[in-house]
């Protein structure tokens, strides 16, 4: 009985010992962290052997094949890694569980004397040439690599006048590097030859109050009516600008915020007592896009400027508005704004215009011109 038990332990230990690993044409070693019976392979070997895309970041690693990918958190404790099917860091190298990876990316996984991980060659099904580039469809997801002279579709085979069969896959010769290569899914690879048009930043004007909420009433002026009139005047000077409300309607804060999250610039318009303009800015901002603003300095200036507009810089917007209003003789006072401003991705500020500067048509037109000028200057990169 004891001999049988020892034989069982020996067999179990042998099952957990490192085994030969073959990944495509490359060979390595499959490990079993924590003796959990889960085979792991070194992530670089797996990526090279099968032509997979590899991303390694702080605390995670991901492998991709076309539109399919699998992300693993990285654990240093081997038992914890194996029990949660996470990646495992050992001696400076990262290992990933092979069976979950195979299931996620459609790889062939065989466990016999050793472990074999493979990827069948993809068959070319269709090539569609378009003015803006090419759309290719394969029998499975395929990775594409841009190299001098064109694009290589790894481990793909087929026949087409535009493509050349090579040992590593199908090659698409191009006279210039593509603008982009992306994966729409369903085994498709799109090769774009023309630059994508950069979208124009959007402006949202939010007339305060409305409907059952009249706001402030000063000298016969109702804030909800003045704010809407002012917003319409500003919008008329900024083609493409939108309003949160078009008429005298009650609009809850959450509805306003939902609209604000789709805009690059948000200016909430209100009326106050007196002659000055009060300009409110968010103290902090919570959105990931807004918090990424300081890291845009390494991008080309044209794209960085556009991203700054989308990520939003309320301080720069406030400065542009302050300068435009001051040029028209308005005294501007800046202060910390309401919490709602912190929840907007774009540059969001709140303006309270003194009622004494809004009593006539001419006065409102002057205020609207200054606000529109400030927004325009901000979008053009002014007021650094």
UniProtKB/TrEMBL annotation:
CDD domains, sorted: MurNAc-LAA (cd02696)
Signal sequence extent: 1-15
GO CC term (a single one): outer membrane-bounded periplasmic space
GO biological process: peptidoglycan catabolic process
A matching Pfam family: Amidase_3
Keyword entries, A-Z: Hydrolase, Signal
GO molecular function, one term: N-acetylmuramoyl-L-alanine amidase activity
Ranges of residues in domain MurNAc-LAA: 203-376
InterPro entries found in the cross-reference section: MurNAc-LAA_cat, N-acetylmuramoyl_amidase_3
Domain of life: Bacteria
Name the UniProt record assigns to this protein: MurNAc-LAA domain-containing protein
């Amino acid at each position: 009985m004891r001999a049988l038990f020892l034989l069982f332990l020996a067999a179990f230990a042998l099952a957990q010992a490192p085994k030969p690993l073959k990944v495509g044409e490359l060979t390595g070693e499959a490990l079993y962290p924590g003796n959990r019976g889960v085979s792991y392979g070194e992530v670089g070997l797996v990526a090279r052997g099968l032509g997979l895309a590899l991303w390694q970041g702080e605390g995670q690693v991901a492998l991709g094949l076309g539109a399919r990918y699998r992300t693993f958190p990285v654990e240093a404790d081997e038992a914890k890694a194996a029990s949660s099917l996470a990646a495992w860091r050992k001696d400076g190298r990262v290992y990933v569980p092979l069976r979950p990876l195979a299931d996620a990316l459609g790889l062939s996984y065989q466990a016999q004397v050793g472990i074999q991980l493979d990827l069948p060659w993809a068959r070319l099904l269709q090539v569609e040439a378009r003015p803006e580039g090419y759309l290719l469809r394969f029998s499975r997801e395929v990775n594409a690599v841009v190299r001098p002279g064109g694009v290589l579709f790894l481990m793909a085979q087929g026949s087409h006048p535009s493509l050349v069969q090579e040992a590593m896959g199908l090659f698409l010769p191009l006279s210039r590097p593509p603008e982009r290569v992306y994966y729409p899914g369903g085994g498709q690879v799109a090769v774009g030859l023309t630059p994508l048009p950069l979208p124009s930043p959007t402006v949202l004007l939010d007339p305060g109050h409305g409907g059952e909420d009249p706001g402030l009433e000063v000298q016969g002026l109702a804030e909800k009516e003045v704010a809407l009139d002012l917003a319409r005047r500003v919008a008329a000077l900024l083609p493409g600008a939108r309003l949160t409300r078009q008429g005298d309607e009650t609009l809850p804060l959450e509805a306003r915020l939902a609209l604000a999250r789709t805009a690059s610039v948000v200016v909430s318009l209100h009326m106050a007592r007196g002659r000055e303009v009060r300009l409110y800015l968010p103290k902090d901002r919570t959105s990931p896009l807004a918090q990424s603003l300081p890291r845009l300095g390494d991008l080309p200036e044209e794209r960085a400027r556009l991203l700054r507009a989308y990520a939003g810089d309320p301080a720069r917007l406030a400065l542009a508005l302050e300068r435009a209003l001051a040029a028209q003789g308005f005294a501007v006072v800046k202060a910390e704004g309401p919490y709602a401003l912190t929840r907007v991705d774009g540059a969001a500020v709140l303006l309270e215009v003194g009622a004494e500067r809004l009593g006539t048509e001419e006065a409102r037109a002057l205020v609207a011109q200054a606000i529109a000028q400030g927004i325009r200057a901000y979008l053009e990169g002014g007021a650094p």
